[in-house]
């Protein structure tokens, strides 16, 4: 009986290792998503602090970024569990998932939670830009040409990305 338990445990080790690896990859990708969303939130906060008239467009922009990144989070986990061939885990974490507009459109047509998330992101991409979109993008460009104005959030993002890159899921 003990031998059977040992053999069964040994047989399950590769599956357990694979599940742990998938979990590590998922956690690593989720950390990348979280770091990216934090970066965009901080960029918008600084922009709106400088020009309060951009609050509405900043909120609109952040909502679109959230939809985009949450879709990527869900799709990544789905591919990780169901179709790893769609992922390139040999690349840096920000390049693990490549979703084309056609991919998002196809996902948006599914009747599932993933389909709902994809539809939200697809609709964002198809919608008319906010009237102040150009003003917001110009304000971002202005901030990005003066790194001292965004030093703390930029350093925070870079530290987070370095820590994420250091995670080994092997």
Give an overview in words.
There is one protein chain. The chain is an all-alpha fold and 170 residues long. It has one domain. The protein is built from 6 helices and no strands. Mean pLDDT is 89; it is low at 1-20. Residues 1-19 form the signal peptide.
User: Unreliable runs, pLDDT <50, ≥5 residues?
Assistant: 1-20
Total strands: the figure is: 0
User: Main β-sheet: number of strands, strand sense, barrel status?
Assistant: none
User: Into how many domains do the coordinates divide?
Assistant: 1
Q: Which structural category fits the helices and strands?
A: mainly alpha
What shape does the CA trace take? flat
Q: How much of the residues is beta strand, in percent? A: under 5%
What share of the residues lie within helices?
over 70%
Helical stretch count? 6
Radius of gyration from the alpha-carbon trace, in angstroms: 20 Å
- Compute the separation of the termini in Å: 33 Å
Order of helices and strands: HHHHHH
Mean pLDDT: 89
Short description:
The chain is flat. The chain is built from 6 helices and no strands. Helix 2 crosses helix 4.
Question: Layout of SSEs?
Answer:
Blueprint: H1 2-50, H2 55-82, H3 101-108, H4 113-126, H5 133-144, H6 151-165
Helix pairs in contact: 1-2, 1-6, 2-4, 3-4
Keyword list:
single chain, 170 residues, mainly alpha
